Amino acid sequence: MNQHAKTPSKPVNDDIGEAVRLDLYRRQMVIRQAETRAYDLFLQNLVKGTSHLSLGQEAIAAGFAVAMKAGDTSFCTYRGHAHTLARGVPVEQVLGELMQRDNGLMRGKGGSMHLTSVEHGVMGSYAIIGAHLPIACGSAWRSQYQGTDEVSVVFFGDGTTNIGAFHESLNFAAVWKLPVVFVCENNLYMEYTPIKDVTAVEHPAADRASAYGLERIVIDGNDADAVYREAQKAYAKARAGDGPSMIECMTYRHSGHSRADPAKYRPEGELEEWLKKDPIKIYQERCRQFGISDAMMAKIDAEVLQVVDDATEACKASPSPPLELITTDVYADGGWAWRN
Question: Tell me, what CATH number does 196's domain have?
Answer without folding.
Answer: 3.40.50.970
